[in-house]
TrEMBL record:
InterPro entries: ABC_transporter_permease, MetI-like, MetI-like_sf. Keywords: Cell membrane, Membrane, Transmembrane, Transmembrane helix, Transport. GO terms for cellular component: plasma membrane. The chain crosses the membrane at residues 34-53, 101-122, 134-154, 181-204, 291-309. GO terms for biological process: transmembrane transport. It is a multi-pass membrane protein. Residues 97-307 form the ABC transmembrane type-1 domain. Residues 1-23 are annotated as: Disordered. Belongs to the binding-protein-dependent transport system permease family. It comes from Lentzea atacamensis. This is Carbohydrate ABC transporter membrane protein 1 (CUT1 family). It is found in: Cell membrane. It comes from the Bacteria.
Length: 318
């Protein structure tokens, strides 16, 4: 009786499982393909023509001796002769390396510390902080060549602003002409421009720090200084890496400001100036100038490649 009263169980229909609706690829029209091809193709061609072709050409010419006159058949291939000459017999090379190292050390210490200090002060939401940020970042908008022209007027011995402020009008100091101090005078001008950029990077880093970390440190009895150096500053490690990489690149590619002031001579020799002097100087030495450029490129890649490797490996882990 009970068996007859039981309701029959529903039987699942037999058949193929329902297909999952996937994302359908949208076919591009002919006009869209043309536009996409132009948007990708033109920048790629321009990049190859103006970046990679000259780079590979410079690497090849660094193994040659050529004055730029005549055709490619006049190129004399000498192997690593240019590199041997640069490291052993070129008198301007090692002073230029020394000046680049001084440039790097100065930018790593002075503008970095000043930019960090300004960022900490502006992060406290001071009154008119937006105006201060704009004023401090304004030099970064100017090119290094224009910075050189501006600071030439400041450093001019006769009637210059700096000598007037220091009361040295009767016995003026030639800040640019004296080879013992002109490098540091130009470094002050470069730091004036670079500080605003570092300030902006650190200010963005400070805004991204979780306020809960600062509150937890305050509850543990940490002072504001201890909180900054033990909590905030370590959390900004990615920003510190970016600042270091940007500063190294800025120090290696420095050229405009010293070339505007005195063509990079008389104590202002840099590696970038040697490249220009050898390639477009009075006696063109395309091979040696290209070799110096390759050395500068190698040093730059030694900083850029580890940074890119760390950045992309971190993205893959996440």
């Amino acid at each position: 009786m009970t068996a007859l009263q039981e309701k029959p169980k529903a039987v699942a229909p037999v058949g193929p499982p329902p297909r999952r609706r996937g994302k359908r690829a949208t076919a591009l029209a002919g006009t869209d393909k043309l536009v996409l091809g132009l948007m990708l193709g033109i920048p790629t061609i321009v990049h190859l023509m103006f970046v990679w072709v000259p780079t590979l050409g410079s690497i090849a010419l660094s193994f040659s001796r050529w004055n730029g006159i005549g055709g490619f058949e006049d190129i004399e291939w000498i192997g690593v002769g240019n590199y041997v000459e640069i490291f052993t017999e070129y008198p301007r090379f090692w002073p230029a390396v020394q000046h680049n190292l001084i440039w790097l050390a100065f930018l790593l210490v002075v503008p970095t510390c000043a930019g960090l200090l300004l960022a900490v002060l502006l992060d406290r939401e001071l009154k008119f902080s937006r105006i201060y940020q704009s004023a401090l970042y304004m030099p970064m908008v100017l090119s290094l060549a224009l910075i050189g022209f501006i600071w030439q007027l400041i450093y001019t011995p006769d009637g210059g602003l700096l000598n007037s402020l220091l009361g040295l009008s009767d016995n003026p100091v030639d800040w640019i002409g004296d080879s013992d101090i002109n490098l540091y005078a130009v470094l002050v001008a470069a730091a004036w421009r670079h500080t605003g950029y570092i300030m902006l990077l650190y200010l963005a880093g400070l805004k991204s720090v979780d306020p809960a970390l600062k509150e937890a440190a305050a509850l543990d009895g940490a002072s504001a200084t201890q909180t900054f150096f033990r909590v905030t500053f370590p959390v900004m490690k990615p920003v510190n890496i970016v600042v270091a990489v940007v500063t190294v690149i800025e120090a290696l590619r420095a050229f405009d400001i010293v070339y505007v002031i005195n063509k990079g001579r008389n104590g202002l020799e840099l590696l970038s100036v040697l490249v220009t002097d050898n390639i477009i100087g009075e006696a063109s030495r395309i091979g040696r100038g290209s070799a110096v450029a390759v050395i500068l490129l190698t040093i730059s890649l030694g900083v850029i490649i580890p940074y890119l490797y760390q950045t992309f490996s971190k993205e893959n882990r996440t």
